[in-house]
Automatic annotation (TrEMBL):
<keyword id="KW-0813">Transport</keyword>
<dbReference type="GO" id="GO:0022857">
    <property type="term" value="F:transmembrane transporter activity"/>
</dbReference>
<dbReference type="GO" id="GO:0006865">
    <property type="term" value="P:amino acid transport"/>
</dbReference>
<keyword id="KW-0812">Transmembrane</keyword>
<comment type="similarity">
    <text>Belongs to the binding-protein-dependent transport system permease family. HisMQ subfamily.</text>
</comment>
<feature type="transmembrane region" description="Helical">
    <location>
        <begin position="57"/>
        <end position="77"/>
    </location>
</feature>
<protein>
    <submittedName>
        <fullName>Polar amino acid ABC transporter, inner membrane subunit</fullName>
    </submittedName>
</protein>
<dbReference type="InterPro" id="IPR010065">
    <property type="entry name" value="AA_ABC_transptr_permease_3TM"/>
</dbReference>
<feature type="domain" description="ABC transmembrane type-1">
    <location>
        <begin position="21"/>
        <end position="210"/>
    </location>
</feature>
<comment type="function">
    <text>Part of the binding-protein-dependent transport system for glutamine; probably responsible for the translocation of the substrate across the membrane.</text>
</comment>
<dbReference type="GO" id="GO:0043190">
    <property type="term" value="C:ATP-binding cassette (ABC) transporter complex"/>
</dbReference>
<feature type="transmembrane region" description="Helical">
    <location>
        <begin position="23"/>
        <end position="45"/>
    </location>
</feature>
<dbReference type="InterPro" id="IPR043429">
    <property type="entry name" value="ArtM/GltK/GlnP/TcyL/YhdX-like"/>
</dbReference>
<feature type="transmembrane region" description="Helical">
    <location>
        <begin position="185"/>
        <end position="205"/>
    </location>
</feature>
<keyword id="KW-0029">Amino-acid transport</keyword>
<keyword id="KW-1133">Transmembrane helix</keyword>
<dbReference type="InterPro" id="IPR035906">
    <property type="entry name" value="MetI-like_sf"/>
</dbReference>
Length: 222
């Protein structure tokens, strides 16, 4: 196999893969930011005792988590133009990734908030703190520390899910592999390089997640 594997072609296409890597990082960063902007309010609404807030948030989370990401992508890609809304493929991809990850982030943050001991919440109420003050000073600082590892795990999932955007002609890592495979008729070399780039991103995020877990464990031991 190695005798027929052309590493020279890979080096020729490295600039293309670097562009794809930058595009994947940018798309993932924008989508993760959007997911937080969606997930945090969805989490707050989900925890609310007001039915008009909790019911729509629960419906959004259930619908997103129970349908495939590819179906969601095609729904917006083909559905929005029929409604007269025309966005670029990249904008649609970022929007769909944000909506999808936002539902999972909402549940991750909700689990972190619920993990805070009820006694601390009761004590903050006894001290006269309102809901905003309790969230800012008592609940969220502890919840964020607990949720960083699963949030990084969700970031890994989002980076890998961004490969689906190649199906709507968005240029990113997987699209770079497709271009190389179609131009040189070398799919093994093209998608091997694509997989290697994703593996690199995965280990970077995994290492940061492991470092945070050790840091969190050390803080709890004090």
């Amino acid at each position: 196999m190695l005798s027929t594997f052309n590493f020279r072609v890979i080096t020729d296409y490295l600039p293309l893969f670097l562009q794809g890597l930058r595009a994947t990082l940018w798309i993932s960063a924008m989508a993760m930011s959007g997911a937080f902007m969606i997930g945090v309010p969805a989490c707050i609404c989900r925890l609310s005792r007001v039915r008009l807030l909790s019911a729509p948030a629960a419906a959004y989370i259930d619908v997103v988590r129970s349908t495939p990401l590819l179906v969601q992508l095609y729904f917006f890609y083909f559905g929005l133009p029929s409604l007269g809304l025309r966005l670029t493929e990249q904008h649609i991809g970022i929007m769909v990734l944000s909506l999808n990850s936002g539902a999972y982030i909402a549940e991750i943050i909700r689990a972190g908030i619920l993990s805070v001991h009820p006694g601390q919440v009761d004590a903050s109420i006894a001290c006269g703190l309102n809901l905003f003050q309790r969230m800012r000073y008592i609940i969220l600082p502890q919840a964020i520390g607990e949720t960083i590892p699963p949030l990084l795990g969700q970031a890994v999932v989002l980076v890998k899910d961004s490969a689906l955007l190649s199906l709507i002609s968005v240029f990113e890592l997987t699209r770079a592999g497709q271009i190389m495979a179609s131009e040189r008729f070398m799919p093994a070399e093209g998608f091997f390089t694509t997989a290697a780039c994703y593996l690199l991103l995965y280990y970077i995020l995994k290492s940061f997640s492991g470092w945070w877990r050790h840091r969190l464990a050390a803080q709890k031991a004090l």
